[in-house]
Amino acid sequence: MAYTKGAKKSRTAPEYLTKVTAVERFNESVEKPGLLRQLPTAHVLSIGNQWFVIHQNAIAGREGSISGPFGFWKSIGRYVKKDEEGMFVLTPIPFEVERKDQFGNVMRDANGKVIMDTRVSFKLKPTRYDLSQTDGPDVEFPEVPFDLGALLCTLEIELVPFTMDDNACGGYCYGTDDGDFLAINPLYPDPLGVLFHECAHIVLGHTQESRNVWVSDEDRTPRDLRELGAEGTNLILQSTLGNTEAEAYSRGYIQNWNQVGKYTEMPERLAEDVFAAGNIIYRAGLGLLKDTDRIRLRKPKKAE
Questions:
Q1: Confidence check: pLDDT of 97 > 60
Q2: d(Cα 91, Cα 124) in Å, to the nearest integer?
Q3: What gap in Å lies between CA 67 and CA 266, rounded to an integer?
Q4: Among candidates 176, 175, 180, 173, which has minimal Cα distance to 155?
Q5: What pLDDT score was predicted for residue 302?
Q6: I need a labelling partner for 51 at 20 to 30 A (CA). Which of 75, 163, 178, 216 fits?
Q7: Closest to 71 measured CA to CA, from 113, 42, 31
Q8: Contact indicator for 85, 126 with CB cutoff of 8 Å
């Protein structure tokens, strides 16, 4: 028997989803090898939502497979089984706000109409169903390839030759008025990890900080937090893509920087940025980056 959408009462997200912090999600990913993995999906999930889906599948006793919204399953002739409950994922909720100038005055166009800007908030909603929660004809789902060329092109990062006389250095990145640039040591054993790490520096705004003279050394993100953020993003990506060997190296690097009393603990804001940056790079590599993906990342500091 098919389940008719809207027939069930509204549900609230369980506490283990609403109360979990980004730091707790990140630390769990660091401590448990293979926690994240790329799940086949009808509509590609953000990395943060993959974490939510994996946990909800595990609690429900499902191994986890392809997942999609109610409407997707209906569109391909499958239906959600009776009494199956949707999994909660963070869903973008667009809304409009009045645009204001630097003095707080509402801005209007030439006709006197108030100019509105679109913003997005995110709410946990039970909109996702695993394949095992549906019934109907078998369907083949094509894989969405992860393309490094698409990643660099989408993020507007130029790959340049490695010029440092230091084989211990895996790579580096920098920004100029002409854009952001990234170099990888061709002799380094983990070029993909270097690419992700340096891309994370760029996406997290570290190259923008370094090229703007109005950002003082005191205002710039400290090196330990820069490295923790960049390598944290690399770990999330390696884990999501299932690169277990690279994931292990990355985990060791992070544990070295993230030791209580020795270096720096992961701040909540940075953990949120790590998941946001990982999602931006992940979706860019899939050719599916959206404006709403960028909104969740903290913007670099600006001049007063």
A1: yes
A2: 6
A3: 31
A4: 180
A5: 42
A6: 75
A7: 42
A8: yes
Phi-psi region of 251 (alpha: psi -120 to 50; beta: other; left: phi over 0): alpha
Are the C-beta atoms of 107 and 99 separated by less than 8 Å? yes
pLDDT tops 80 at residue 238? yes
**Residues ≥6 apart with Cβ < 8 Å to 120:** 92, 93, 94, 95, 292, 295
Q: Which two tokens stand for residue 176?
A: 């100029």
Residue with tokens 């100029």: 176
CA distance 278 to 234: 7
Tell me the three state secondary structure of residue 98.
strand
What six digits make up the tokens of 249?
């190296």
The CA–CA distances, whole Å, from 147 to 41, 254, 279 equal 17, 26, 14
pLDDT value, residue 45: 79
pLDDT at residue number 85? 93
CA-to-CA distance for 94 and 91, rounded, in angstroms? Answer: 10
Gap between the Cα atoms of 288 and 135, Å rounded: 28
Q: What angle is formed at CA 276 by the lines to CA 196 and CA 228, rounded to 5 degrees?
A: 55
The rounded distance, in Å, linking the Cα atoms of 128 and 133 is 10
Lowest mean pLDDT of 7-16, 32-41, 109-118, 147-156, name the range.
32-41
Query: With 80 as the cut, is the pLDDT of residue 289 above it?
Result: yes
- Answer whether residue 243 shows pLDDT above 60: yes
CB crowding 21-33: b at 16 or more within 10 Å, else e: ebbebbbebbeee
Report which of 152, 156, 164, 227 is spatially closest to residue 192, judged by C-alpha positions.
Answer: 152
Pairwise CA distance, residues 255 & 30, whole Å = 8
Nearest to 10 by CA among 101, 78, 85: 85
Q: For residues 172 and 198, is the Cβ–Cβ distance under 8 A?
A: yes
**Which helix (H) or strand (E) is 119 found in, with range?**
strand 116-130
Q: Where does the pLDDT of residue 125 fall: very low under 50, low under 70, confident under 90, or very high at 90 and above?
A: very high
The per-residue pLDDT for 250 is 82
